[in-house]
Specification:
The structure holds 2 protein chains of 2 kinds.
Chain A lengths: L1 E2 L9 H5 L5 E4 L4 E4 L9 H5 L1 E2 L4 H13 L10 E2 L4 E2 L8 H5 L23 H4 L6 E8 L6 E2 H13 L3 E2 L4 H4 L1 E3 L4 E2 L7 E2 L2 E8 L3 H12 L5 E9 L9 H7 L6 E5 L8 H4 L10
Parallel strand pairs in A: 4-5
Antiparallel strand pairs in A: 1-6, 2-3, 7-13, 7-14, 8-12, 9-13, 10-11
Helix pairs in contact in A: 6-8
Chain B lengths: L17 E6 L10 H11 L6 E4 L3 E2 L21 H7 L6 E5 L2 H14 L4 E7 H11 L5 E10 L7 H7 L9 H13 L4 H11 L7 H13 L6
Helix pairs in contact in B: 3-4, 5-6, 6-7, 6-8, 7-8
The chains are: A alpha+beta, B alpha+beta.
């Protein structure tokens, strides 16, 4: 993303809407400017701000007059008055930033928008997590902090060393150069994204071990982590196994996503597919 | 898309936050899913949702690419549910947001009866979702628990800001904008209703809950600054 210096009038509205705080008014240029190293190409500025198409010269002149008179015009805060944002054609590896930051762009690896994961949201159809198993989603950078891949790489290597299985249909897994070691490809390690989710599956007996491992690595990385734990309920709709373990580890289970089991396989090819549901690698 | 799982707040703060969403699984039940997704959204309307969303095109209140200067005084802030329904053109996640459990329960009953064959999830407090399932006579299939935020939490803002900004799990509502809206409401520069419309437009998949956001802003306005 770039901001046209010819169109920008330095109103400052965009400096508040950038989730990464990467936009500032350059004191020399007197125009809004994007710190490209901090920008994650989420397009919140371009997609979220409404646009007027006012004449920049006229707006700058009016702003000067108001400023000189110490008058404050109180405009709408979610508007770019001169449509100054200009999307760029992104190339590798920068394009990775947008894939993991702009929720409207589906991940090529999974075809899913947002962070590109299905987790237990489709467990009634995929059968990915069965009784006695748990699906972890370990999300980095959320909320509103961001993460670079070298920080995720620390966690994925540690998890691989512990012998966990990474979800095959997951965008981070597809960017690993070696799934066995959890190594993420080197050319993207310094790329910053809004957030990314590592998905693993394990048995309920390993819940505590995995969480303690995540706690340990969290201390070594410079971002926030959000953990989600997916469990299959029994025939009565109860989870009497996973929740007690999490509570014993000190978690208060305030919020959850509950799959109510109304989905089924309907694609013609899928009903006779050979691939087992929820394949892992 | 875990964009509704990690909303900040305790279970009581989700009393007016029920998101029911439908999602096709790629390669398994995505073929022919578009009419079903539209039907899902259409079925939500009689239960008075506070937002509808399509992960690919947005929610019921969207930014405008061609505003006129008159918008600063006279702006259309009515949610356009019809645009969301008609805009679904490919397999994606669609969501209906309710601000009371009774509406969510009735909607879940209707979805069960419609038998769309898509995965349907309820995102709210653990207990709230359980009650919706009981009311509809559906045993829960799977649960995805949020364990909250960990790691360098010193990088996170105060709770009031976080409660607003995490209502877009994709991070499209910046902490700075949420804080600015809190300040503007406190200063009397905007009403909570107005502030909420600005925030809602940034949520690009329509799961932001304007009703809960308004309540949060009103509660923060009444508190001393140190409390938020």
């Amino acid at each position: 993303m770039r901001i046209s210096p010819d169109r920008c009038v330095a109103c400052g509205n965009c400096t508040y809407v950038c989730p990464m705080g990467a936009i500032y008014i350059d004191p020399v240029l007197k125009r809004a400017t994007i710190d490209r190293d901090e920008c994650v190409e989420c397009y919140a500025c371009y997609n979220g701000l409404s646009q007027e198409h006012l004449n920049p010269t006229l707006v700058r002149a009016l702003r000067k007059v108001f400023s000189w008179l110490r008058l404050r015009f109180d405009p709408e805060p979610d508007v770019c008055p001169t449509a100054a944002f200009e999307p760029e054609d992104l190339t590798w590896p920068r394009v990775v930033r947008r894939a993991f930051s702009d929720p409207r762009v589906p991940h090529e690896s999974t075809g899913v928008e947002g962070r590109g994961t299905e987790e237990v949201k489709t467990n009634d159809v995929t059968g990915r997590v069965q009784l006695g198993e748990v699906g972890f989603t370990i999300e980095f950078g959320r909320p509103g902090v961001g993460v670079r891949f070298h920080e995720i790489d620390r966690m994925t290597r540690a998890l691989a060393k512990a012998g966990v299985a990474f979800e095959k249909r997951n965008p981070v897994t597809t960017l690993m150069s070696d799934v066995a070691t959890g190594a993420i490809r080197e050319d993207i390690l310094n790329e910053k994204v809004m957030s990314a989710i590592v998905e693993i599956k394990t048995t309920v007996e390993r819940i505590e071990e995995i969480i303690r491992l995540v706690w340990e690595i969290e201390k070594q990385i410079d971002t926030v982590v959000s953990i989600g734990v997916g469990a299959r309920c029994n025939a009565e709709g109860e989870d009497e196994i996973v929740a007690p373990i999490l509570e014993r580890l000190g978690y208060r289970l305030e919020r959850a996503k509950t799959n109510i089991g109304l989905g089924r396989v309907t694609n013609a090819e899928a009903t006779k597919a050979a691939e087992p549901a929820g394949a892992i690698m | 898309m875990t964009n509704t799982l990690h909303r900040f707040g305790d279970a009581a703060s989700f009393r007016d936050d029920y998101i029911v969403f439908a999602i096709p699984s790629r390669g398994r039940n995505d073929q022919g899913s578009v009419p079903k997704l539209k039907k899902f959204l259409e079925m939500a309307l009689p239960f008075h949702p506070v937002n509808l969303g399509d992960a690919r095109h947005g929610g019921a209140l969207r930014p405008c690419r061609k505003l006129t200067p008159l918008a600063h005084w006279r702006r259309d802030v009515r949610p356009d549910f019809r645009a969301v329904i008609e805009g679904v053109d490919s397999p994606t996640t669609v969501a209906a947001v309710f601000d009371n459990r009774a509406a969510a329960e009735e909607f879940v009953k209707a979805v069960k009866a419609a038998d769309l064959g898509l995965s349907v999830n309820i995102s709210t407090s653990v207990e709230g979702a359980e009650q919706c399932c009981w009311a509809a006579g559906i045993p829960r299939h799977s649960v995805g628990y949020s364990l909250g935020f960990e790691g360098k939490t010193e990088k996170l803002p105060e709770s009031g800001v976080l409660m607003l900004s995490t209502m877009c799990g994709h991070g499209m509502i910046s902490h700075a904008l949420a804080r600015k809206m809190i300040d503007w409401v406190k200063e009397g520069r905007r009403t909570p209703e107005q502030a909420v419309t600005y925030l809602t437009r940034f949520c690009s998949c329509g799961v932001f809950n304007p009703s809960r956001a308004k309540r949060i802003l009103e509660e923060i306005r009444r508190k001393a600054p140190a409390a938020v």
